[in-house]
Amino acid sequence: MNSPETIAAIDLGSNSFHMIVAQHQNGQLQVIDRVKEMVRLGGGLDKKNNLTPEAMERALTTLERFAQRLKDIPPHAIRCVGTKTLRTARNAVPFMKQAQRALNHEIEIISGFEEARLVYQGVTHDIEAQDQPLLVMDIGGRSTELIRGIGQEPQQMDSLTMGSVSMSLRHFGDGIISHTRMAQAEMDAMTELRGIRKQYRQGQWERAIGSSGTIRSIARIIHTAGWSLNSITFDALKKLRKQVIDAGHINAIELEGLKEERRPVFPGGLAILYAAFKSLTDLMKINEMLVSDGALREGVIYDYIGRVTNHDIRELAIDNLMQRYHVDNAHAERVHVMASALFNQVASHFNKSEERFENALRWGAKLHEIGLAISHRKYHKHSAYLIQHSDIPGFSRQEQRTLSTLVGAHRMKIKSSEFNSFQLKPLLLKLAVLLRVATLLHRGRSLETMPVPNIELQQGVVTLQFAPQWLEQHALTRNDLKIEQRYLKKIGITFTY
Question: Which of 109, 140, 166 is the last residue of a domain?
C-alpha cells in the first residue's frame, strides 16, 4: 500500500479565506484540517477598485498564518487560487507579489468560468453525484456561480457579478434594512439572472444544490427555526426574509444559527438567493435546494488529484480547442515531438520550473496554429488572442497568459517587452526560442522524419548543430535559419548554426 500524500488547497475568497488539508491514498481522500478566516477582502475595494492598505494587511497577516501550516507540505502539493476580488482589483499585481511572499507559495487568479467549474467539482464529489442532472449554485462575496451538469460533468457554467459582500455594500452599507431596500437588491439580482434564465430550464436538471457560506448559513438558520428540515424551500425563505426586514438594521438581526462574522453581509446574500427562487421559479421551478459541504477548495483538491493521476482536465481542454479550430493534428504532433526533444537537451536550465515549462511548450506546440481558423496573415497573433480570451477549463489566468504569450512569439518578429510582466522572463524567452526552432524546422510540413539538432543555451547565445551536410541539402531551412538569426538579434540573442 502506498503511503498517503498530503495536499492542500487555499481559496482566497472575497469574504473569507479558506484552507483545506487532506491526505490522498489509493484513490481515497481524507480531510485532516480546515482553516477559515474572515478577511473581507472584497469589502476592502475602494471606489477606484483598489484594495485598501487595511484590507491588504488583513490578507497578508492571514496568509502568514496559513504559511505556518503549509511548511511541511511539498510545494507541488499546494494550490492557492484567487477569485472575483483579485480579478477586479486594479492593484492586484503589487498585492500578489506581497501575498506570495507571505504565503511562500504561488497564487493563481482564476476566471469566473474556472471558478464555476471547480465549485461544481467540489459539490459533486461531496454528494457522490451519479449520472443525475444537477443545478449547483454558489453565492460568494462578489460573484455568484450557477452550473448545470450531469453527474460530475459540468455542461453550462456562469459566473455572475454579484455576491453577498457587493450586494450588502450596495444596498445595506449603512446597516439599514427596509422592505424597499430589500426589494431593490432582489431586483438587481433578478436583472443579473435574466440573461441566463433560458439556459437553466427545469428538465435539464433534477436536483438543485447550494454551496459555500451564504447558502449554508441560510440553511442552518432555516433548519434551526424548524421551517424546513432537510432543505431550503421558498416558503422558508419568505419567513426568513420577513424577519430580516423586520429587524430594520443589520446589528438588530437576531437569528439562531447566524454567526456574528457573517451578519454584515447576510442581507445581500439572502437577497440573491431569494431572487433566484423568485425570478427563475417559472423556468427552473426551484421547490427546494439541498446544501453541500463541498465548494471551491474541495474542487481544487480533486482537480489536483486528477492532474497527478493522469486525468488532467487541461489536456482534454487543449484537445477540444484543437478540434474546435480544425488544427492539423499530425503537424502539431511533429512540432511537439521536436520541441520536446529540444527541451530535453536543455531541461537543466528550467530546474524547479521544469514541469510547468514543459507543459507550456507541449500545449504551445499543439495550439500554435489555431489562429489559421481566422486568417493566415499574422495567424500567430490570432492564435495568441484565442488562447488569451477563451474559457479553457483547468487553466488559471496566469497559465493562459503564459501560453498566449508563448504562442504569439513563435514566429516572425518577437518583442522582448511582451515578456516584461513575467517573473520568469528569461526562462519564458528561452522556451519561446525552442518553440520557434521547432516550428521553423517543420515549416515545410514534410512527412519525413526530421533529425533533431543539438542545441545549447547560454547567456544570450543559442547554438544549433546539425548533422554534416544536412543544411547544404536543405537550402530553404538554411535560409529560414538566417532570417531567424536577424529576428533574435533584435532582442539581444546571438543565434548560430
Answer: 109
